[in-house]
Structures are given as structure tokens and as C-alpha cells.
Amino acid sequence: MEKKILVISPHTDDGELGCGGSIAKFIEEGADVTYAALSCCEKSVPPEYPRDILSREVKAATRILGITDPILFSFEVREFPRMRQEILDALIRLRNKIKPDMVFTPSRFDTHQDHKTTVEETMRAFKNCTLLGYEQPWNNISFNTLAFIPLQEDHISKKIDALKCYETQKERGYLNPDFIRGLALTRGTQIEEKYAEAFEVIKWVLH
Predict the structure, then answer these.
(1) What is the DSSP letter of 30?
(2) Among 6, 24, 59, 106, which is disulfide-ready with 158 (CB 3.0 to 4.6 Å)?
């Protein structure tokens, strides 16, 4: 078990979707887990909700997983490529503050422009620690399932409950509890466990 773990989420909910079960497991096992969202996506908030609703939702969601103080940045959604340097600078500050052993970030196979920028700048900022790319099938045409984290029912239940906090996103198919559980069952079957989350190994550093 790595002691200091950083989860980088381009937008609120990405970290929970990609590795929410693993976050719950790591915290249960006593790891020091930091969650950082680069954008609270104010431009994407439905008009019937207040502009800061996603910042409230991510705090509620991560609290269920065991994180009490997520780090929230205000980079503009869908504009990450033009803010590449500012994002890199923010990630370097995070690196120097947290000094993580392991970082979770989007996969290099992710097609979303903000996610692509996030993983590229994560690779530049965190050169001395393990990097794992989390799976988001709706953005991945292909995905290398090279690392697996086995999970228990409680971890998957917490992940599903955390994602239920995103009332503003409830119509998105990938937030469906059946999909979340089905993907975890699929990945678990691959390693002869009931549930698992799968990751791309971007870099593995053994200290």
C-alpha cells in the first residue's frame, strides 16, 4: 500500500468514476489520499441550478468515500489545452505540497480534450512516482487493462452512493449504478475477484 496517494480529477466526478472504489479501499486501509479537481465546470451547470452546485456535489461525494477536504481549482471546462502551462504550474505546486507516492489521472487513451491535457501535464509534473490512468469507457476507444485493484461490496456501494450526489449529472448513462457495478464485475472477473477497478500503467516507480 502506497502511503500518499493523489487523485487528479479534470472535472468534478471524474475521480470518483475512475477510481472511487479504490479511494474508499485506500482510505479504509489507512492511506493518506488527496483528491484534486481541476474544474468545477460552472459553464456546464444546468440553468435551474446555482453556479457553484458542482463544488457542493463533489464535496458531498468525496466525503462518502472518506475525503473531507477536496482541493478544487477553477480552470474553465473544455478550455484546458489553452491553459496548459497554468495547469502544469498548479500540478507542480500540488506535487511539492503533497509529495505523493502514487498518482491517479485519466488514461492516455482518453479522448476528451481536458482529460488529455490533464494526463499529459501530470506526466510532466510527476516524474518520480507511480502514475496510473483510470478507465472511463465513454471516452476510451481502447484501454490497456494492465493494473487491477480488487474491491469488496462495501467499496462499490460507496462509489455508487458517492456518484448519487451528482444530482446535476443524473441523466448521464455512465452514472447508472448498473453500469458502475457491471464494469466492476467485469474487471473483477478478469482477476478472479468479485469486483475490481482497472488502470493503465503509465509509469511504475518502485522505491
Answers:
(1) T
(2) 24
Secondary structure string (H, E, C) spanning 145-161: CCEEEEECHHHHHHHHH
What is d(CA 198, CA 140) in angstroms, rounded to the nearest whole number? Answer: 13
Q: What is the pLDDT of residues 7-21, one digit of tens each?
A: 999 999 999 999 999
CA distances to 60, 175, 185 from 152, rounded to whole Å, are 22, 19, 11
- 139 by Cβ neighbours in 10 Å (0-12 / 13-18 / 19+) ranks as middle
d(CA 136, CA 117): 15
- Of 32, 207, 56, 35, nearest to 134 by C-alpha is 35
Per-residue confidence (pLDDT) for residue 2, from 0 to 100: 54
CA 183 to chain centre: 16
Which regions of the chain are under pLDDT 70? Answer: 1-2
Rounded Cα distance between 143 and 148, Å, is 13
Q: Determine if residue 105 is left, alpha or beta; phi over 0 gives left, psi from -120 to 50 gives alpha, anything else beta.
A: beta
Q: Write down the architecture of domain 4-203 according to CATH.
A: 3-Layer(aba) Sandwich (3.40)
Q: What is the pLDDT of residue 3?
A: 87
Which residue, 23, 3, 11, 35, is CA-closest to 158? 23
Pairing outcome for strands 195-203 and 130-134: antiparallel
